[in-house]
User: Fold this.
Amino acid sequence: MKLLTKSFLILLIAILLPAFSPQNNINDLLLGKWNMEQVVQGGEDVTGFHNPYQERWILFNENNTFISEGRPYSKNTGIWKLNLETNELSLINDSETSKDSYWIVSFPDSNKMIWEGARSEYTKDFRIYYSRGDL
Assistant:
């Protein structure tokens, strides 16, 4: 009987463990609304330029679409993709290819997200800090 119980527990752990791995949950962490808190460029806080009204946000939907909005920039929509091996987030804009951007995302906790610029020499100098927002 003990052998059967141990075998069952090992099988249960083997089935459930992948569901709780950080790689699988990063998509779930990304979903929802995020408020832009701080923008750092080259070690300097440039939030006052990129988010002067403290109202910029981005919403990641389950169907891999996103919406971002907030002054001084206009509404932006498109498709997001997340590479689970590299944590690279691709934001593909609906209207202008020149607005496409690529970021390495990390989550210090489930309510904080950090973007670090990827691919573009311009964005590689940026770190953007977000906090989870209310829908």
In short: Confidence is low (pLDDT under 50) at residues 16-24. The first helix runs from residue 2 to 16. The helical segments are 2-16, 22-30, 47-50. The radius of gyration is 19 Å.
